[in-house]
Amino acid sequence: MDDFEDLYNYLDSDSDGTVNIKEFQEGLEDLGVTQSMERGKKIFNTGDTNKDGMLDFEEFMKYLKDHEKKMKLAFKSLDKNNDGKIEALEIVDALKTLGIDISENQAQLILQSIDVDGTMTVDWDEWRNHFLFNPAADIEEIIRFWKHSTGIDIGDSLTIPDEFTKEEKLSGQWWRQLLAGGVAGAVSRTSTAPLDRLKVMMQVHGSKSNKMNLAGGFQQMVKEGGIRSLWRGNGTNVIKIAPETAVKFWAYEQYKKLLTEEGQQVGTVERFISGSMAGATAQTFIYPMEVIKTRLAVSKTGQYSGIFDCAKKILKHESLGAFYKGYVPNLLGIIPYAGIDLAVYELLKKHWLDNFAKDTVNPGVVVLLGCGALSSTCGQLASYPLALVRTRMQAQAMLEGTPQLNMVGLFRRILAKEGVRGLYRGITPNFMKVLPAVGISYVVYENMKQTLGIAQK
Asked: Does residue 183 sit in helix, strand or coil?
């Protein structure tokens, strides 16, 4: 196309002076500009400022001019040495600011997907032509595909907090994303609550003599308290999302400032340390709710009338210290979980970029969700024995005739009576809930982002 007017006329296939969404999507696909109808729809909706379902020439030109300004800013933010070209090392540096480490070879793959003349550098014309109909507004959106997002909730509270840019913080987009993640977590946890309760029951009551399996466990719970009992303790699990997310996000920002000098990039190691410390801070704050959740999950019908009744009875019959039983193994569990989750995700990301990134660095939703699910599963596998000991310590006071052991004592007792397998009781329902939790969480998260007006255009 010689100019924007020719392009517009080409898109206006019925020559009526306006372009509807069908013409726009099909025209862009025919030109090979976009590979997905969804992307065409997002661009169209952005350009259609009067929301009449048609794109006139003025709207079309305004979209292109506004978008070109943003692309120019993105180009300049990458072109650190101001030579009018983007090189591989500049891509590496840009990704580092988002906490994503890639090699120079991987950065060259990114350049290859934009570079038309084969110089292994990208000038302004190449950049503009490539991103003209890419709805990404700035460089951080363009290269953010690989962000390990906590919008995906698997029901555990040990994930590293999300990264937010200065623009997101100033515009207030960060709290909308946290809200979207919180709602996604609530729906996801509620959907998988029966598996979560079964896991807790198996952790507390499972032993060599009482080999509780999946079917038997569900039957036992339904027989004792009916179908509704499968969700016992879920209310607490949902309520604690908001305060925990808020404290974790605030603490993460503070720890990042302490560990990095002003203007310094936050690397993977700093992100891990800051995230682990933020997780520990948030857990300290909401831990009594973790204890209440466990007590409700293993309780018999009628034992507690709700969250407040449970808290009142713990305080009356035990002491304030009971609200922090299992706190040490819980805290220790954050480090292997967060560390392995982050390390496996980085490893999977590197493998994909090295072996499958031919003409794009965007791996797509399925790959990202798969990497997220696999890395969090590995993290759970590493921290599970600590999680089991934590749960047993939280519930010990409810089990008659059971000695009140500390962390080391419980480890010894489990190993002596049940062997290493005893440290992994309940892991099957725990793993079973990962895929549905990730899937449900992602779908709700994306829908919430659209509802709150923060879906990427």
From this structure: helix
How many other C-beta atoms are found inside a 10 Å radius of the C-beta of residue 353? 19
For residue 86, the cross-strand partners are 122
Q: Which of 313, 306, 152 has its CA nearest to residue 236?
A: 306
pLDDT tens per residue across span 305-334: 999 999 999 999 988 999 999 999 999 998
Report pLDDT digits (tens) over 26-40.
Answer: 887 777 665 456 667
Which positions ≥6 away from 249 have C-beta within 8 Å? 161, 162, 174, 178, 278
Query: Any idea of the CA torsion for 72, 76, 79, 84, to the nearest 10 degrees?
Result: 60
Q: Residue 208 corresponds to which amino acid? A: K
What's the token pair of residue 265?
């990039």
Reference 205, options 87, 318, 294; nearest CA is 294
Query: Using only C-alpha atoms, what is the Rg of the chain?
Result: 26
pLDDT value of residue 193 = 93
* DSSP per residue, 115-134: -SSSSSSEEHHHHHHHHTT-
Place of tokens 């569990």: 333
DSSP conformation class of 318: S
Contacts of 380 (CB under 8 A, 6+ apart): 156, 337, 387, 427, 430, 431, 434
Question: Helix or strand or coil: residue 400?
Answer: coil
Helix or strand run (H / E) with residue 202: helix 193-205
Compute the C-alpha angle 100/105/106, nearest 5°: 40
* Pairwise CA distance, residues 417 & 425, whole Å: 13
